[in-house]
Specification:
The protein is an alpha/beta fold. Helix content is 34%, strand content 21%. It binds guanosine-5'-diphosphate and magnesium ion (MG). GTPase that plays an essential role in the late steps of ribosome biogenesis.
Length: 164
Amino acid sequence: SKPVVAIVGRPNVGKSTLFNVLAGERIAIVQDTPGVTRDRIYADVEWLKYQFTMIDTGGIEPNTKDIILSQMREQAEIAIASADVIIFICDVMQGLTDADAKVADMLRRSKKPVVLVVNKVDDFQKYQADVYEFYNLGIGEPHAVSAASRLGIGDLLDDVVALF
Ligand code: GDP
Ligand code: MG
């Protein structure tokens, strides 16, 4: 069967936007309000000679007492468990947060291959130094992308399929 790629990260970092770009369709709902994607959403993706199943998740907010946010985290944990490769997204505009570091720890414990994405890099010149900060997560090279402007997507997919 096809490899499974799960997209995880905190709410509002652009998971659903990236999912829709990779799926080539507007399947997942993109929203300014965190907490819209509560369920896992699936799409089949083709890149070069590779085919895989991609999962969008509602997001992981560590250490929350909020019921919806903890349900979203549960869905993300299920997605991580069933994934062969994980795309972990952070947001360059918000910068590296404690919550990102906690999600990174959780992914390390999963022992799955992780591709680190720093999204919302709409202007590479402007954000270059901010992208390098994400090396501090200790999970490898950050891939600068702008899901909204479809920048950096090809390089990202090349590195994802290389892990199958
Ligand atoms: P999710 O909660 O992680 O699924 O995030 P969404 O995909 O719903 O996006 C949250 C917000 O970030 C929306 O307002 C998007 O339009 C915005 N967004 C997503 N990708 C980008 C990007 O590359 N650049 C900028 N500037 N905004 C983005
Ligand atoms: Mg979403």
